[in-house]
Design goal:
By secondary structure, the protein is of the alpha+beta class. 20% of the residues lie in helices and 31% in strands. It has a single domain, classed as Nucleoside Triphosphate Pyrophosphohydrolase (Alpha-Beta Complex). The two termini are 29 Å apart. InterPro entries: NUDIX_hydrolase-like_dom_sf, NUDIX_hydrolase_CS, NUDIX_hydrolase_dom. Keywords: Hydrolase. This is NUDIX domain-containing protein. It comes from Paractinoplanes hotanensis.
Length: 128
């Protein structure tokens, strides 16, 4: 997890895709850029649009969140850019508070299911 430099809150590693970039590729890149950790993407967890946010410049944004389960592949966790002020590993029972969409992804992993959570309906697809 990273402690964000803009809010000082702990969060799962997040980021924006580059133009034309696939979500799994972007996730691997963002984790490396922010933490120095190499990961592989294992599967899709959840997809949802967040509530309207307003950027410091006044832009209105509806983020589309794609939650992906990643597996550690190597490297030493460190602050690797200016988007965070700390990086840390946490046991599942000792996680700091998370935004609801991130807490949902953690809960899905801990529940052990293989389905994908879709926000519109709250529907979880059956395992395939």
């Amino acid at each position: 997890m990273v402690r964000r430099s803009d809010t000082a809150e702990w969060a799962l590693t997040t980021g924006c895709l580059e133009p034309g970039e696939q979500p799994a590729t972007g996730a691997v890149r963002e984790v490396w850029e922010e933490t120095g950790i190499e990961v592989t993407v294992e599967r899709l967890l959840a997809v949802e649009a967040l509530d309207l946010a307003v950027a410091p410049n006044g832009d209105q944004i509806h983020w589309l969140c794609v939650g992906l389960l990643c597996r550690y592949g190597g490297g030493t966790a460190r602050v690797n850019d200016d988007e965070s002020v700390a990086v840390g590993w946490f046991a599942a029972e000792a996680l700091p508070p998370l935004p609801p969409h991130q807490a949902r992804c953690v809960s899905l992993v801990l529940a052990g299911g293989r389905g994908v959570w879709l926000a519109e309906s709250g529907f979880t697809s059956p395992s395939v």
